[in-house]
Amino acid sequence: MENFVDQSQPDALFPLKGDAARGPSAAGTIRGDELLVWRRALLRRGGGAVDLDWLLEMAGGLSWSQMQSVFLHPERSYRLDTSLEAIETLWNHHLQTDVPLQYLVGLCPWRDLELEVGPGVLIPRQETELLVELALSLMPAAVHPRPPLVWLDLGTGSGCLAVALALAFPESSGWAVDCSDLALARAETNLERYGCRNSVRLLQSHWWQCLDVLQGQLDLIVTNPPYIPTSLLANLDPVVRQHEPLLALDGGEDGLDSIRSVVAEAKTYLAPGGLLLMEHHHDQSNAVIDLLVSVGLSQPQSHRDLEGILRFVSARQVAIPGMQFSPFP
Ligand SMILES: C[S@@+](CC[C@H](N)C(=O)[O-])C[C@H]1O[C@@H](n2cnc3c(N)ncnc32)[C@H](O)[C@@H]1O
Predict the structure, then answer these.
(1) Which residue, judged by its Cα, is nearest atom 18 of ligand 1?
(2) Are residues 149 and 106 in the same domain?
(3) 230 and 179 within one domain
């Protein structure tokens, strides 16, 4: 399978919002009925309405609620941040090449963030947002631990989890680790974008290889390792298969190669009472729980995603006797 990452291309074909007021990208107003004719014509070429409306929002600045207004009041005029020609160019490029719209626009909404994304780095997925919610609900603050909270985002990719944790735990000390240069550069951009670059250290490491300094130190590990069994990669949508990095997707023969590497040493790196949170494939829950038990982590637990699928696990390092926990604020 070809893992296409054309690094000779600019990150995004489209300038980010706010830079779009020149040349073919010029902003303007358009009547709703004209917009609907244009939209129908583009959808006849292929693709789905949800994707096209996403593009209108991300590239054109036309929100979902404004789009509803277009349907209800086509006689009114609507403002676009860029020209329809520029949006049409992106749409045609997407249809012809299967390049993800997020890569073309250079942005991806995720939780309450708008993250920069581009070729070579996984586009953050909606289900992964729940890892942050789990961290917020399960993260204990020991009553007498040494502050600050120390966390690790292992396999940080775009830095989505790292940015969210740094914002959620402003007094914390974070580590964002990946083996990929492109991922680390993208994570750095996103941490800077949200003003949390100074509280998070970025480090290149093959899983735990360069992290000795963190042994016994981590109050929280979050990780979304590659977990798709190799044999299933060929079945993925071409938008994913041909354009997102294999390094972020391929979990080896049974999908558990990276998960095994992460779980094998997590116990060594967690502080007493520390929490490990991990995302996995939809059918790996039992296998991952077995792995957690086999390395001696305590309180292994499965968690469901929004569709009710067991998609995450948590487990803890044994707390020191007498250690008390309270919910993290
Ligand atoms: C599924 S992606 C997750 C990215 C991001 N955390 C997210 O949730 O969108 C897995 C990440 O693990 C990284 N990765 C793969 N193998 C690795 C290894 N041996 N050591 C460190 N990171 C690795 C990939 O580069 C990729 O960024």
Answers:
(1) 206
(2) no
(3) yes
